[in-house]
Amino acid sequence: MTPPMHLSAVAALDTAGRAVLELADAIRRADMQPGDQFAALPELAASLGIARGNVRRALAVLADAGVVEIRVGRGGGTWMRDRKGIVAALSAVLEAPVPGETLTDLLEFREVLQTTAALRIARKADPDVIRRLREGADLIASALENGDRATARHEATELHCAIALNCGNRGLGDALLRVIDQMSVIGYRAGGDTQQDALLVLCDELVRAIEAQDEEAIRATVAQQMRISFEIGIRFSTDSP
Q1: Model pLDDT for residues 105-130, shown as the tens digit of each residue
Q2: Boundary (domain end) residue, out of 92, 114, 133
Q3: Per residue in 70-118, pLDDT tens?
Q4: Which of 47, 45, 72 lies closest to 57 in space, CA to CA?
Q5: Quick count: other Cβ atoms within 10 Å of Cβ 178?
Q6: Considering only CA atoms, which of 93, 16, 8, 89 is closest in space to residue 56?
Q7: More confident: 237 or 116
Q8: Which helix (H) or strand (E) holds 218?
């Protein structure tokens, strides 16, 4: 399947916005935790293939969202602070997919990618990866039980990113991360939507299906996630000014 035009255009931009996307994915890929230090700006820019000025502006966006802490002067640098702010940073540089063909194409693309990634994980059955996904699903359930939907949404995004990063195919994982980035903007801006609870509950069902290596259940659960995501996206676009 060819990537949607809207997604390809966003990913190809050599701007501070693209740098935010690249840095967000790098943070997830390296599993950076609070207190971890980033490489110096010249090294960071070189590794991303993006001009220093754009990387500097991207770090400022991440700092505004509380993802990183930038210290200036002697002993200065950039340190990881809190991954919970990543989606807020993405929301600052990405537009939510619009209803109609753009949203439909993105969801169809994500369904193919996410199903394929989940099936690959189920077939490989790496116990460390399965354990990581189970821990993520349990964190979502705990947050929902405590009424903390913001944390539940964050952990759901982390879970889906973990599926992308652990599917065993870099191209597939990178493409899935990009669609997750795009779709997470809708979830962030439509935070009060009651249907999001149903979407969050399905995360546990997906992990259960992966654990059981139930390929039919994997396909059905991902398809249901995409249907609910479409309904949320349409309602969000209708309610937005």
Answers
A1: 889 999 999 999 999 999 999 999 99
A2: 92
A3: 998 888 899 999 999 999 999 888 876 655 567 888 899 999 999 999 9
A4: 45
A5: 22
A6: 16
A7: 116
A8: helix 215-239
* 150 and 67 housed in the same domain: no
Residue 16, pLDDT score: 79
User: Cα separation of 126 and 65, whole Å?
Assistant: 34
- Enclosing H/E stretch for 71: strand 68-71
The tokens describing 129, both together, are 């990866």
Q: Do 158 and 206 share a domain, yes or no?
A: yes
> What whole-number distance in Å separates Cα of residue 19 and Cα of residue 105?
24
Q: Are residues 126 and 225 in the same domain?
A: yes
- Written as six digits, the tokens of 81 are 């602070």
* Domain residue limits at 39: 5-92
Q: Which residues pair with 37 in a beta bridge?
A: 79
